[in-house]
Amino acid sequence: MTDFTSAGGEAVELRRGQSLLTVDRKTRRRNAAEGRFKVYGLIAISIALVMLVILLVTIVVRGIPAFTQTFVSLDVPLRAEVLDPDGTGDPEVIRGVMTFGYAPLIEEALADAVAETGVQTEIDAAALVQMLSSGVAADIRDRVQENPELVGETVTIEVLASSRADGYFKGRVTRESLERDRNLSPAHLDVLDAMRDAGIVSIHFNWDFVWGADASESRPEEAGIGVAMIGSFFMMLVVLVLSLPIGVAASIYLEEFAPKNRFTDLIEVNISNLAAVPSIVFGILGLAAFIQFAGLPQSAPLVGGLVLTLMTLPTIIISTRASLKAVPPSIRDAALGVGASKMQSVFHHVLPLAMPGILTGTIIGLAQALGETAPLLLIGMVGFIASNRPDGLAEGLLSPNSAMPAQIYEWAKRADPAYYERAWGGIIVLLLFLLAMNLIAILLRRRFERRW
Amino acid sequence: MPTLWLIVIVLILAAVGYVAGRQRSLSSVDGDVRRLHSLPSFYGWNAALWALLPALLALVAWQVMQPVVLNLSTQPMLELDAAQPGALGLAMADVRRVADGLDLAVQTGLMSAEGARGIAPEEVRAQLGGMGIALGSDVTPQTLAAAQHYRGWADVGQWLETALVLLLSVGGLALAWRATNAEFRARNSVERVARWALIAAACIAILTTVGIVLSLIFNTIKFFGLYPASEFFFGTTWSPSFGGSSSLGILPLLWGTLYISFVALVVAVPIGLFSAVYLSEYASPRMRALVKPALEILAGIPTIVYGLFALLTVGPVLMSVFGQGGVLGVTWMGGGTAVMTAGLVMGIMLIPFVSSLSDDIINAVPQSMRDGSLGLGATPSETVRQVVLPAALPGIVGAILLAASRAIGETMIVVLGAGAAANLSLNPLEAMTTVTAKIVSQLTGDADFSSPEALVAFALGMTLFVITLGLNVFALWIVRRYREQYE
C-alpha cells in the first residue's frame, strides 16, 4: 500500500470531485499506450503476412513462364541424298549420320519458313539458326532413328526456339540487351516477330519442363526437372521405408516400455539434440560415414535417403510419441484386464488408435525432408547434369542422380537468367508436392483424429 | 552363392518355420488350443525367428569381416616400400581390381575358370582392357599372385559363409521345432525379441550422435595435424588455395555468421514476439485461426526457396536502394549478395519460429494471473508488459536462443544470398560469408579428402556443431532453471 500512496498520489489528487466517467489525463495516456501496443501487434502481423504474400507472388509470377516455351514449327525436308545417300533404307546407315548432317536440312527449313513470312532480312541462313535451340538437330535425329521410313519425306516438326528468342517473347530479353549479345542480334527479333505473326512461332505449355531431364549450361530451353523428381522420389522411398518403422519402434519403446533410468535419459537427450543439429552437419555425417567409410556410391539417392532418414527421425519420433501419449490409459488397462500381454496391448490396441497421428507426423517429416538441400550438396547430388532416367529399383537407388531442391540450387548457380526462370519454375513444382503432402496430412488428421 | 539368394533362402526357411512351429504346437495338444501356453501363431513366430535371426546376424558379421581378413592375409604377399604412406592402399586396390576383373571374365564366359587361374602376368592387362576394366600399369607377377590368392580365398570364404548361414538357419529351425510343445512359453520368447528390436531402434539416436561426433573428430584431428590449430582459431584471413600455402582462419567466417544471425534476429524477434502477443492476447478466435496457419506456411517453405528469394529478389531490391544508381544516390552496396540480404530473408524465415514458440509459452501463463492484473485496473497492454511477459521471459529467451542456433546453422540462404568473400567488416551492405557456406564450398567439387583445404570443412563443422549444441543446451537450461511452475 505504501507503493500506491507514493506513486499514485497525483492520480488521487485529480480524481477529487470529478465524475468517474470523465477521462482524466493519465487515463487518456494509458489508453493511448494501450492503442499503440495493439497497433504494434497488428503491424508485426501485417509485416509477416505481407512478406508471405510477396514471397508467394514472386514465386508464381517468376515461375509460371518456365512452364511455357517458344516453339517454332518447321517443315523439315529429310532428304534421302543426305541421310541415306545409297538409298539402302537400312536403319544402320541412317544411324551413322551425325547431328552435323542434319544441320543443313534445318537451315534450309528455317530459311524457307522465314521466306514464307515475307520479311526482308540481311541475316544469312547459317546465322538464322541461332534462333533455334542448339539441341534441335539431335532431337530430329532421334526422331528419324525411331522411324527410318521418314527419310525422303518432308515432316512438320515443332522445335524449340533458343533461350534468347524465348526470353524475347517472355519479356526477359530486350532489344537493348541484345546489342552486345553474340548469339542473337536485334535483327533476329524482327524476323521472330514476323514469324510470330505468321503463326510459325508459338508459345505453349511445355511438358518437357516437368518430365524432362536437365540440359547442359548452354541450352536452358531444354532443361527439365523430371529426372531430379525421380531422384527425389527414390530418396523419399528410402526415408519412408526406414524412418517410419524405426521411428515408430523407438517411440513405442520410449513411451510404453522404457524404465526411467540413465540409459533412457541418454536416448531422450540425444533425440532432442539431434532435432536441433543443423542439417549441414548431417551432410558431413553422410559424407564421412556413408561415402568415405562405408564406400557407398557418391550422388546416389540411397545415400541421400539415408542422410535424410537420420535427419527426419527425431521429428517423427517426437510426433509419434505425442500421438501415443494421446491414447488414454483406459485403453491399455482394458486390454491388460482381459489378459493381453503388455506387447499385445500396445500392438493390437494403442498403435492402431495412434496410427492417424503417426502417419500425419510422418508425412510432415517427409515433406521437410523433400525440401532439404544442404546435406545433399555435400554428398554430391549437384554439379552434374542429371540426364539419365534410371530403369529399375536398384539403378534408381544407386546410380547418380539429383533431387528437386538440389536441381533448383544448380540452376540458380548457372549465371544465365533463363536458368533463373527455370529455378523459380522448379520451386513451383516442389511447392506443389509439399502442398499436396501437407493437405493429405491435414485431411488425415481431420478424418481420423479422435478426441478422448 | 550370391548373398541375395542366401537371404531369400533364409526367408523361405523362416516361412517354413512359421508353418511348422504352428502345426507342431497344435498337434502337441491334439488341436485343443486352450491347453497351449501361448497362441499358436506365437509358436510359429518363435520358430521363424530362430530360423531367421542367428543366420542373418552371422551373414552380416561375415560380410563385414571377410574383406578385412582377406586384406590382412594378402598384404604380406606384396613387397612394399614402407616409406610411402599411401602405397599399401594403392597396391591393394590394384589387387582387388585384378581379382574382380578375372572374376568378371569367368562370369561372362570370356575365360574358363582354369584359364583365369593360370593366366600369365603380361596378358592380364590386355585381357581385362578388352572388357573395359582399365589397369594403370602392367601387372607384376607379385600383384597377380596376390590377386589369385585373394580370389581363391574369397571363393572359399563364400562357400564357408553359405554353409554357415544355412546351417544356422536350419539348426535354429530344428531347435525351435524340438522345443515346441504345450508347456513352451512361446509368447514370452517372441516378446523378448520384439522388445530388443524396439530398444535397438531407440538406440539409433545414440548411434547417429556418435556417428556425427566421430566423423567430425577424426577428420578434425587429421586437419590439425596438417594445419596449426592456433592459426585456425585465431587467424583473421580466410583464403584457401588448393595449390597450398592457404590461410584458413575461422574468425572472418564466425564474424559473418554472427553478423548475419544478428540481423536475422533483429528482424525476427520483434515481429515474431509482437505477433505472438497480439495473437494470444488480442486476436479474436477467427483471426487467430486464419493468421496462425498463414504464419506457419512461412515455416514450411524450404530454405532453398528463401535462398533464391534472397539472391534474385531481395538482393536486387536492396541494390536499387543502396547500390550504384539507386534511389538514395549512394554506393554503399557493391553487389546484390550482402549481410543485409541474407539477414533480412533469414529473419523472415525465423518469424514463425519465434512467434509459435513464444505463443505456446505465453499461452502457458495461467489466466488467473491476467485476471488478477486486469482486476486491479491494469490495461491489457500493461498486463502483458508487467505480468505476462515477465512470467514468460525464460521461455521467450529460450525461444530466441533456439532461433539463434537455427540462424547460425542455416545454410542455403547464406550460400545463395551472403556472398563468397570472407570479410571482417562492419558494413552490413558488404558481402560476407559464413561457416556453413564455407563448409559447402570446401566439400563440393572434386576435392581430395587429404588436403587441409578440404579437411578444414570438418573443423568448421565441428565448430558449428559445438556452437549450436551449446546454444541448445543453454536454452533448455535457462527454460528449466527459471521457469515458474504454475499449477
UniProtKB/TrEMBL annotation, chain B:
GO CC annotation terms, alphabetical: plasma membrane
Main subcellular location of this protein, as a coarse class: membrane
Functional description taken from the UniProt entry: Part of the binding-protein-dependent transport system for phosphate; probably responsible for the translocation of the substrate across the membrane.
SUPFAM superfamilies: MetI-like
Compartments in which it is found: Cell inner membrane; Cell membrane
Membrane spanning residue stretches: 6-21, 42-65, 159-177, 197-218, 253-277, 297-318, 330-354, 387-408, 454-479
GO molecular function: phosphate transmembrane transporter activity
InterPro entries the UniProt entry points to: MetI-like, MetI-like_sf, Phosphate_PstC, PstC_N
KW Hydrolase (keyword) present: no
Location of the ABC transmembrane type-1 domain: 254-475
Superkingdom of source: Bacteria
Keywords: Cell inner membrane, Cell membrane, Membrane, Phosphate transport, Transmembrane, Transmembrane helix, Transport
Family, similarity comment: Belongs to the binding-protein-dependent transport system permease family. CysTW subfamily.
Membrane-topology annotation of the record: Multi-pass membrane protein
Gene Ontology biological process: phosphate ion transport
Protein name, entry field: Phosphate transport system permease protein
PANTHER family: PHOSPHATE TRANSPORT SYSTEM PERMEASE, PHOSPHATE TRANSPORT SYSTEM PERMEASE PROTEIN
